[in-house]
Amino acid sequence: MDNCIFCKIIDNFIPSERLYEDGRFIIVRDIDPKARLHYLAIPKKHYAYLSNMDASDTQELGHIFAAIARESENLGLQNGYRLIVNQGADAGQTVFHLHIHILGGEALEWRKNNE
Ligand code: AMP
Ligand code: ZN
Fold first, then answer.
1. How much is the mean pLDDT over the chain?
2. Contact assessment for residue 41 and residue 28, using Cβ atoms and an 8 Å cutoff
3. Does the C-beta of 48 come closer than 6 Å to ligand 1?
């Protein structure tokens, strides 16, 4: 997809720290980390939203979740981790190529802003 920053990372036109790769997706380090460890799992196939996926794409998501679990120790996430998929404006999505944030490496906050 032209002008998609994550397609450019996948095609090596933009450099990234790639920690895992298989035929279906890559894991890279996020350039603006929101936790001590912050990675992105990015499917090689471009789609902007979960709502754009067909049945085989959803199977691919299952593959990605299982691979993240398998790789978690190699990623330094032996104490646990959080997976986040931002969808749309209210979630603050900024890159419109589906990706799963993987956060960990510390105890993560889990509360509403005003509490
Ligand atoms: P989102 O807000 O869910 O769309 O997240 C996009 C994420 O991509 C943000 O956490 C950015 O820090 C991250 N990001 C943007 N450009 C790059 C890049 N070139 N390499 C790694 N991460 C990036
Ligand atoms: Zn893309």
1. 95
2. no
3. no
